[in-house]
Write a structure and sequence with these properties.
Number of helices of chain B: 5
Radius of gyration of chain B: 16 Å
Distance between the termini of chain A: 58 Å
Helix content of chain B: 25-40%
Structural class of chain B: alpha/beta
Radius of gyration of chain A: 22 Å
CATH class of the largest domain in chain A: Alpha Beta
Order of helices and strands of chain A: EHHEHEEHEHHEEEEHHHHH
Mean pLDDT of chain A: 94
Distance between the termini of chain B: 40 Å
CATH topology of chain B: Rossmann fold
Number of domains of chain B: 1
Low-confidence stretches of chain B: 138-149
Number of strands of chain B: 4
Helix content of chain A: 25-40%
Oligomer: heterodimer
Largest sheet of chain A: 5 strands, parallel
Low-confidence stretches of chain A: none
CATH architecture of the largest domain in chain A: 3-Layer(aba) Sandwich
CATH topology of the largest domain in chain A: Rossmann fold
Largest interface: A-B, 48 and 37 residues
Strand order of the largest sheet of chain B: 2-1-3-4
Shape of chain A: globular
């Protein structure tokens, strides 16, 4: 049998997903036995023009990490879609937008002002912003356009599978790779993870009735070791997040932040977490409810930490 | 003169507010035709998801109507709705959507007149706010999760 051809790409991402693909450890030898990597900007020297020359559908699978923020991201997403039989959104950025997607609370101009003028380490008195074209003595140079709104991969091209996580856990990555290697592929559109239930389902902490009078941020308390973190007032996102990670964060005394995305069947993770959190507030008095909620300094940023571009509203409306 | 006619979705609980709307109708009371009523079993059933979905599909305002506190058919469903409102409003504000576009009110089965008053006032508020700002509207691809639901 011919070896599989696999491509890996990073768009708007931090690079963590690249490391996560290597985190499969010695299983990488099994991958090398079964597959050749034909394109991987981080690891091998294959140019964009080489990919353009490949026949359509000649790559068996593309693991695409990173959100779509620039015209370059979009161009390569479309190129790799054309060249690949299977397109996998790998990691939270390509699946839901993730941390780069938080810039959907702002627009391009606000992001540029922050990054190129306001940051304390920046010295830019003439307020020079990136331009898509610039003339230099050697000729005209162009750089990709920076979009106003960050998009997910599925909002850009047709996606076959989603691998959740920021970054995906080793076992989740291997579940996807194993499916590719053995050819035992799930139905199109599947979010590949060991669980379709919530993180709570895997979390060993003791869960009782949830009634909250005060929320805490992680640095404000030392949580009890065995009791549910949410019951202790920490905003643990486990109740609204897909499992499959093994509930690693709550076991290390850190509340879940929601990186595995919504549980099966849910379309807006933030709205579900909002609903769950407000239902467990222990008060029927509006003034007291508002006081309790004041403990949450940035609700939208907390609830949509990983999923703003994939949420129903997709971005903030800026006047 | 303001010629803008807003689209308003009103989630009415089956036991009080929907009956209140019914009473307003059978008593031939005039109320704003901008209201599109959706009957739900309880105001506590109205997930923030419903509100966000309505707003994302172009509703200019969303009204949630339930039984008065203490009168809930399911004992405390309306308190659940009450607890969600402040947080939902905060999130909407951060997303650049005027928090007045979503409102929770209590209307009992005997309050046909109040139903008309609440809906008329809300329509007036939304008319003054103007149309909801739209977000990005590219087509979702076939495999996109939202497209499937």
């Amino acid at each position: 049998m011919d070896k599989l051809k696999i491509a890996l790409y990073w768009a708007a991402s931090c690079g963590g997903c690249e490391i996560a693909t290597l985190a499969i450890g010695e299983k990488i030898l099994k991958l090398a036995e079964a597959a050749d990597i034909v394109f991987w900007p981080v690891g091998i020297d294959v140019k964009y023009s080489d990919v353009e020359k490949m026949p359509d559908k000649s790559i068996d699978a593309c693991l695409f990490n990173g959100a779509i923020r620039t015209s370059e991201n979009e161009h390569i997403a479309k190129l790799l879609r054309a060249k690949s039989k299977i397109m996998i959104a790998y990691g939270s950025c390509s699946y839901e937008g993730c941390i780069p997607g938080l810039s959907n609370f702002y627009n391009r101009q606000m992001t540029f002002e922050r990054a190129y003028v306001e940051t304390p380490s920046t010295d830019n008195p003439e307020k020079v912003y990136p331009q898509t074209k610039v003339k230099v003595p050697e000729g005209e140079l162009d750089i990709p356009e920076f979009y106003d709104t960050v998009k997910t991969l599925a909002q850009t091209v047709d996606v076959d599978y989603f691998v959740p996580g920021c970054p995906p856990e080793e076992k989740t990555t291997w579940l996807a790779l194993e499916a590719l290697i053995t050819g035992n592929l799930p139905p199109k559109g599947t979010v590949i993870s060991h669980s379709i239930k919530s993180v709570c389902d895997e979390c060993p902490r003791k869960k009782e009735e949830k009634k909250i009078k005060k929320f805490y941020r992680p640095h404000e308390i030392i949580p009890e070791p065995e009791k549910c973190l949410l019951e202790q007032g920490l905003l643990c996102y486990g109740i609204a997040t897909r499992g499959g990670c093994g509930a690693l964060c709550p076991q290390a005394n850190m509340p879940c932040t929601g990186c595995y995305g919504p549980v099966e069947g849910v379309i807006d993770q933030g709205a579900h977490f909002l609903s769950a959190i407000s239902s467990i507030i222990d008060s029927n008095d509006l003034v007291e409810i508002e006081r309790i909620l004041d403990d949450i300094p940035d609700p939208a940023g907390t609830f949509y930490r990983y999923s703003l571009p994939d949420s129903l509203l997709r971005r903030a409306r800026i006047k | 003169m303001n010629s803008f006619e807003p689209k308003i979705v009103a989630f009415c609980c089956n036991w009080c507010s929907y009956a209140g709307a019914d009473l307003a109708g059978t008593s031939r009371m005039q109320y704003s035709p901008n209201i599109r009523i959706i009957r739900v079993m309880c105001s506590g059933r109205v997930s923030p998801l419903f509100v966000l979905k309505a707003l994302s599909l172009g509703a200019d305002g969303v009204l949630i109507l339930g039984c008065h506190p203490g009168d809930c058919h399911y004992i405390e469903g309306n308190y659940k709705a009450l607890r969600r409102m402040p947080l939902l409003k905060k999130v909407l504000k951060q997303l650049g959507i005027d928090e007045e576009r979503v409102q929770l009110e209590w209307v009992s089965a005997a309050e046909g007149a109040r139903f008309a008053e609440v809906t008329n006032n809300f329509t007036e508020t939304i008319k003054n706010l103007g149309p909801i700002p739209l977000g990005p509207v590219e087509e979702y691809s076939q495999g996109a999760r939202h497209g499937q639901t």
